[in-house]
Fold this protein.
Amino acid sequence: MPATQENEIAMTVYAPALVGNEGRPLAIVHGMERVLPGLRLEWTISSEGKRIPVPQREAFLARGRPNGRGFPLLRNGDDDFRVTVTGLELPAGSSPGGQAQLEIHAVLPLTGDGIAAAAEVLEAVAEGARAFWGHATPFNAGVDIARQTKNRAANPQPPPRGLPALKPPWNIRSPEIPHRLGWLNYWSDAAARSIGFPDTARDAELLSRARRTSTGGWVVRLTDAPLELDNPAHLDALKQAYERFPEIGGRATP
């Protein structure tokens, strides 16, 4: 499930929709386990909220969600270091460019170990999903960032903290264009090109906190410590990144 607690890092990753019984959900799970030593995502949550084992994990993932859209939630068995992942299908009508997408949600604890692993886990999820883009953000900062997305008829209030208003996903022209920024940002090669990253003259600071992935994408860290918008320096870094990349959130097109 998406993070709902203040002590969690929420990851959201957007990828092409699943077609039939393909292997990307299992690749995501294997990738997370590879970069987090000791992690085993072999449990799920019952409708009553109880943790139950999944002995046939590959078949469980292949069956998909009960509604046939996405893949079901898996989690580990350690309640003191809770990690989850699930995938939801977004229909074409609510997605950029009118193309259905797979929206993957993963959660890590906002602890020293979770923070240290977050960039590698984000990369593993995104590359396993063959994603367009994604981000990992502490829950509290993520709430304010989510409030940047505006459907004017439903929510005429301006975004918090002087952040720019972003278009809803269905008004963004292409799935490669990120909807928003986060603390850690995964941009596929196509997404990076769509927003004009990197520009060596303008992106020296971001490049000092970025790394290239094996598929030619990027993991870009906005701030060294997890994003905390009560910190003026962190808020300024987020605003500067939005100013640098006007394509994000569909702001560069009318």
